[in-house]
Amino acid sequence: xxxxxxxxxxxxxxxxxxxxxxxxxxxxxxxxxxxxxxxxxxxxxxxxxxxxxxxxxxxxxxxxxxxxxxxxxxxxxxxxxxxxxxxxxxxxxxxxxxxxxxxxxxxxxxxxxxxxxxxxxxxxxxxxxxxxxxxxxxxxxxxxxxxxxxxxxxxxxxxxxxxxxxxxxxxxxxxxxxxxxxxxxxxxxxxxxxxxxxx
Length: 199
Fold this sequence. Notes:
By secondary structure, the chain is of the alpha/beta class. The protein is 48% helix and 12% strand. The longest helix has 34 residues, at 107-140. It has seven helices and five strands. 15% of the residues are buried.
């Protein structure tokens, strides 16, 4: 399968410019687009919150994704590298028109795959180190981290479900049945109902 991927950040931008570039490229290279994926959403959004996420789940070995430029996949270098690495693992291809990028099964792609993996590992280590340093600094300042001992969280799994639970009770559902619906214990339902004044 060959996919044409088009993304613009706002309604004020036009998708047809990217579509035209991809169509012209495909015509010149005798490529047929089997499916178009078009969306209007910020590139800062993670792929799972975009149509791109659905495409990444469907794409198979040998499939080709064509887009106008790499920045259409994401706004940050790390996000783009993560997407490309994911596609490389299943031997899918990504071609871009403006930056003339070709991700495939050649030696250049294999070197990039190593770089992607190494970058991701370094990034994870840096995030972990920064988190540890920040926590250590807060402790040194005398800040008590985490929830105080004996204090219960104000939010529980049922928070925001008050009206739904009230409706279920009016329809004759028992606390155990409601608990199974929301994957919580009967006692949790009972306490939540008492705290919220639900009969």
